[in-house]
Design goal:
The protein is an alpha+beta fold. 47% of the residues lie in helices and 30% in strands. It contains 1 helix and 2 strands.
Length: 47
Amino acid sequence: MFEYGKFAQIEDILGNKIELWEPFDDNYRKMVEKEIEDFKLEKFEEN
């Protein structure tokens, strides 16, 4: 378990790896909002 969600890794009968993720809503929202703000700042600094 991580601060932004729960993860699981499984493998099917053919050996393909599958990753599952269940985000924690509040922490995930904060993480995405920060990434959006960082992206906006990068674009602003380029111009």
